[in-house]
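User: Here's a structure from my thesis project, written as structure tokens. My advisor, Dr. K., wants to see whether a designed sequence matches the one we expressed. Can you design one independently, without my sequence as a hint?
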């Protein structure tokens, strides 16, 4: 097997319009396609980061909540690369998004921090 990178990450939102706004307007991800799937009563929004990784944002009627705290088994968080963590934190806080204090990765010396999407999905900003 020769994995060449990550193609996409899929996220299920409890409130599609709220999450759509968060990922497109606040985080600035580009919309690739948006599809309403009538047979599932579900939207699928394909988003793209500047480096080409895609995020699939889904809506489904009444999805169960994701266990998060204490840390549940499974995907821990989704990390986004940014050129300047402090500037990104300031931008998010300016939009009313709660962001943890910036920390230093003890192994790489890089700055990082965490925040959450509208459903509490843990997101990380990691400095390039």
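Assistant: Designed independently from the structure alone:
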């Amino acid at each position: 097997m020769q994995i060449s990178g990550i193609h996409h990450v899929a996220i299920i939102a409890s409130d599609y319009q709220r999450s759509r706004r968060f990922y497109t307007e606040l985080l600035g991800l580009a919309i690739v396609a948006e599809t309403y799937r009538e047979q599932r009563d579900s939207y699928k929004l394909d988003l793209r980061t500047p480096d080409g990784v895609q995020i699939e944002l889904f809506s489904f009627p009444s999805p169960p909540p994701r266990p998060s705290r204490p840390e549940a088994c499974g995907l821990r968080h989704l990390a986004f690369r940014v050129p300047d963590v402090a500037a990104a934190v300031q931008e998010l806080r300016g939009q009313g998004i709660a962001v943890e204090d910036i920390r230093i990765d003890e192994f790489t010396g890089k700055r990082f921090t965490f925040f959450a999407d509208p459903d509490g999905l843990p997101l990380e900003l990691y400095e390039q």
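When you compare it with your expressed construct, this may help: The chain has two helices and eight strands.
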